[in-house]
Design a protein that fits this description.
The chain is mainly α. It is built from six helices and no strands.
């Protein structure tokens, strides 16, 4: 399925195009997110057969992603970004999120970043 996603992206961009490492990372990250979302749904539904399959797929896919940031590393990046953009309240959350996400691409998922930003903005 990942190979098909990569090939579909090439087709969408034009058949003579080679994907950049950044584009490939975006596709892999999207595939991991889809599987994690499905995993939660399958666990709720008690579909252990599909849960096991998805866990195996995630283990394989995560080998191709950069090492994930620790919670402390992510919080530090968010702190620095908050000061860079001059954020002072939760109303600035979107501004901070849009500045942090490119910095942590492939190293942290959006929900982790969201939690970190929310915890630091009052």
């Amino acid at each position: 399925m990942v190979k098909a996603s990569l090939q579909n992206e090439v087709i969408n961009l034009g058949n003579n195009v080679t994907l950049s490492a950044d584009q490939e990372l975006t596709i892999l990250t999207r595939e991991v997110k889809q599987r994690k979302d499905s995993l939660l749904e399958f666990e709720k539904a008690g579909r252990d057969d599909l849960v096991d399959k998805l866990k195996q797929e995630l283990l394989i896919l995560e080998e191709y992603l950069p090492q994930q940031l620790s919670e402390d590393e992510l919080l530090e990046i968010v702190r620095v970004t908050i000061s860079e953009v001059g954020a002072t309240s939760k109303a600035d959350m979107g501004k901070v999120m849009s500045a942090v996400m490119p910095k942590v691409k492939g190293q942290a998922d959006g929900s982790s970043v969201n939690k970190a930003v929310a915890s630091l903005l009052k």
